[in-house]
Every structure is written in C-alpha cells, then in structure tokens.
Specification:
Pentacotripeptide-repeat region of PRORP domain-containing protein, 28 helices, mainly alpha, PPR-containing_protein, Serine Threonine Protein Phosphatase 5, Tetratricopeptide repeat
Length: 504
C-alpha cells in the first residue's frame, strides 16, 4: 500500500485548486437590509408582520442570497427555510436554481433531511420542465464552498434523481458520475443506496459488463459492487485523459481501502501507458510482481497495444505468446490489437491467423481491426479468403460497415470478378448500409478495369443522384476509359466537369 501511494505521488503534478466563489449581485443587496431581515427571522416575527415591515423592499436574487448566507449556520437553518418560503410568497419574485441550491446546502448541513429532499425534488422537477438538466448540479457545486456545506448533499441529490426516475427517462448518466466524483473529491463516500444508483447508471450506459469483465481479468475473481463503482470512476477519468486527476483520486481511494491493490497497480500501469511512458509502466509492473501480485491479461494487453502503436510487432507477438504460456487468457482487445497491428505491418498471414484463433475462442473482432486485415488481403489478391472470413463472421453477428464492403469490392474488382462486385454492392444495400464515396469509387473502378464503361457510367449517375461527390480518381478513371473506347466527346465533357469542380 505504502509503495503504491508513493508511486502515485511521483506521477502527480500539482493541480491548481479553483478557489473562485460564485456570487450573484451581492454588492447590490445592502447589508443592513439583509441583516434586518435576518434579525427579524431570529426574533420569530410572523409573516404578516414581516411583510408589513419590508413592504417597500424589493426582493431580488442578490438580496435573497445575502439573507440566506446570513442564516447559513445550522442553528439558523429552520429560519433560512422560513425565509425561503416567505420570499416565495412575495409578489414579483420567483426563486431561481441558485437560491434553491443555497437553501438545500444549509438544510443538508443542519441534517434537516426531509426539508432538503423536498426542495431538491421541487427544483429538479422545475428544471426538468425547461430542459436545464445540468443546472442543479452546477449550481450545487458552485455554491458548495460559500455555504460551508457537507458532501452528504450529493448523496441526497442522487437519491432524489432516482426517486423521480429521471435516470430511467433518459437523463444523462454522465451527471451521476460528475456528482460522485465531486463526492469522493470532498471525502464523502457513498452509502449502499448510492452504490445501487451508481451500478444502475453503469447498466444504463451499457458499461457494467465491460468493467466487470475488466476487473475480473485483473483480480481473477468477481469484485464487490463498491469496488466496481470506485474503480470504474477512476478508470473513466484516466480514459478521458485526465491522468493526474485520476491518480489523485486513486490515491485517496487507496488510503480508504476503497480499491484493491492488484487493481490499483494495473490502473497505474494504464495511466503510464496512456501518458506514453512505457518504461515507467514496466517498472510499476515489475514492482507489482515483486510484491507477490500475479500478472494479468489486462496489463499484458496494455503493453501489446503500446508495442503495436510503436510499430514493434514482434514484441507484441512475443507478449501474446508469453501470456498464453502463463495460462492468462487473451480477450477480444488482445486479438484486435494484433490483427490490426500485423495487417498494418504487412504480416497478413499472421493477422489472419490471429483472427481465426480469436473466432475459435468465441470472440468477434472489432470493425477497425477486421477492415484493416480485409483491406490488406484484398490488396494482395486474396479477396476469396477475406470474403470467406467475412461470411463466417456475419453468421456470428459481426456488423460490417461501408469500408468493409469497399475493400471486398475493390479486391474482387482487381481480379476482374465483376459479378462478385455487383453481388456485394446489392448485399450492402439489402443491409440498409448506404454506399458512400469509397464504395462507389471501388465499383466504378472495377467496371472500368473490366472494360464495362457503360456500367461504370450507370453507377456514376447513381452516385451523383445521391449527392455523393465523385473524387478526382473517379473522373480520371472514367476519362481514361472513354478515351480507350474512342469516345473522346464524353471524355472531354468529363474532363471539363472535373476541372470546373476543382476550380470551385
């Protein structure tokens, strides 16, 4: 634990703390009026007396804020609530989100929970009607310091969202994590009810399985809901590129035993790799092994990704072999990296071999990896092999895109197999995939290579009818074929059209 905390500390740079406090028109609210209203509430005047005494005072946001802050201490919390309700009944005044937020903070700090919940639900309903879904959170965050509030208020906020079923109706789950991050940042840690809400948010985002599988690979067995939630937050922050913030949060969680050491080591490795510091990441990994923690497929895959990105394909392949020899199971990302990396490096046979092994182990490749491999196979004249694997994957639920079809069409076009080109084009349309410029370019080039310039012109017309701009390559191909066919008039027309478009 101590080493981990030191390791994280070395990785952090100083992050400036924003101490700016937001106040609305405070200077415009005379202090003596605010104090007079405060004293009147402390004297327990009734509403009629208060209204008579302050009839000439025009309430605005600045004055209401000043009075509420004069009554922000827990001993005055009920008086602050009384003032809030009295102000709401004054003519020509309506509470905004800011005055709601200040009052909620005051009530939460004084543990007047029923009243705080009631105001939270009221302001959430109010803002939901006008579409200001982030306004309550932003306002509570901005008014937190000035009210000397308690982080418990964010627990109440999450519970209010859940009670009003706002998450179920499509409310942005990013909001949940924004609140939770702030809670942990303020050293307020979630209770069981909040953990359930956060797990529900992961389900709504479709990320629960991703994180559970990831932590299973790292830890070797199922983690508790609280560990899943805490680690998901840190990982998502690191994934966004906020590495220093993520490591600082990880350090805080380690101090409170909120994450497991094995997972913490792996996340530090991930952060180092994310920063491009592979050497330092490897040092952390070696320290992890020295301290008795097992290697895991998540960390190995991180290093494989770094090697592939750096063009060190042999090192990446070596790590895959080492991982398999240690009985660590590669997962989909492990295979995807090598399929794509080997294809980019021109190692098409190796790429195809990893794809076959991936399918045998029950995984489906991502589109980018498969498309890269298909493109290379078609370039080397092996469109049949690419199409065979494509058919196998379609039966297993693979979802192709226009790039997949463009590569296959280009591959068959190179071989002069025009029937396969047409078949793939209509298969694509039957899947409701709109052929883009890349597909039309491949189709037109394929027909031209077979000497069927009339058919190429037909697809050229379809392309233009669909408002897809032909590339210079398309024009040049058609022009060259028309000249070859002795149709100089059409060739010159296309040449003029191409030059006109190029000049615009």
């Amino acid at each position: 634990m101590a080493f981990l905390l030191r390791r994280i500390s070395k990785s952090l740079i100083l992050i400036p703390i924003n101490q700016e406090t937001r106040l609305i028109n405070t200077d415009s609210a005379p202090k003596d009026v605010a104090k007079a209203i405060r004293d009147s509430f402390r004297s327990s005047w009734n509403w009629d007396t208060l209204t008579t005494k302050f009839e000439s005072v025009k309430l605005d946001g600045g004055l209401v804020e000043r009075v509420l802050l004069e009554l922000k201490e827990p001993i005055d919390a009920k008086r602050a609530l009384g003032f809030f309700h009295w102000a709401a009944h004054r003519k020509s005044f309506e509470h905004g989100v800011w005055s709601y937020s200040i009052t909620i903070h005051i009530l939460a700090r004084a543990r007047l929970l029923m009243d705080a919940r009631a105001l939270l639900e009221s302001v959430l309903k109010k803002t939901a009607e006008n579409g200001s879904k982030f306004s309550v959170v932003d306002s509570l965050l901005s008014s937190y310091e000035v009210t000397a509030s308690n982080p418990f208020v964010f627990d109440l906020l999450l519970q209010a969202y859940a009670k009003l079923r706002m998450f179920e109706t499509g409310f942005d789950t990013a909001l949940v994590w924004k609140i939770y991050e702030h809670m942990v940042g303020k050293r307020n840690y979630p209770n069981e009810e909040t953990i359930k809400i956060l797990i529900d948010a992961l389900c709504k985002e479709g990320k629960l399985k991703k994180y559970v599988d990831m932590f299973d690979r790292i830890h070797g067995k199922r983690c508790s809901p609280s560990v899943i939630v805490n680690t998901s937050l840190v990982f998502s922050i690191l994934e966004e590129g906020r590495v220093e913030e993520g490591l600082m949060l990880l350090r805080r969680m380690l101090q409170k035993n909120m994450v497991l050491d094995t997972i913490a080591y792996s996340l530090i490795v991930y952060a180092k790799v994310k920063q491009g510091d592979v050497c330092s990441a490897w040092e952390v990994y070696e320290e992890m092994l020295k301290r008795g923690f097992r290697a895991n497929s998540f960390v190995y895959t991180l290093f494989m990704g770094a090697h592939c990105e750096g063009g060190r394909i042999e090192e990446a392949q070596s790590m895959m072999n080492e991982m398999e020899n240690m009985d660590l199971k590669p997962f989909d990302e492990s295979y995807n990296l090598l399929i794509e990396g080997c294809a980019k490096a021109g190692r098409v046979e190796a790429s195809l071999s990893y794809l076959k092994k991936m399918v045998e182990n029950g995984f489906i490749p991502c589109r980018s990896a498969f498309n890269e491999m298909v493109g290379k196979l078609c370039e080397t004249g092996d469109a049949e092999q690419a199409n065979t694997m494509f058919t196998i994957l379609l039966d297993k639920g693979f979802l192709p895109d226009s790039i997949t079809y463009a590569h296959l069409i280009d591959g068959y076009g190179r071989k002069g197999e025009i029937q396969e080109v047409v078949k793939l084009y209509y298969e694509m349309e039957s899947r409701l995939l709109s052929p883009g410029a890349l597909v039309f370019t491949s189709v037109i080039k394929s027909f031209c290579q077979c000497g069927k310039v009339e058919e190429a012109e037909r697809y050229f017309g379809i392309m233009k009818d669909r408002s897809i701009a032909p590339s210079l390559c398309v024009y040049e191909t058609l022009i060259a074929n028309h000249f070859d066919k002795g149709n100089a008039e059409r060739a010159l027309h296309l040449k003029n059209e191409m030059e006109l478009i190029a000049s615009i």
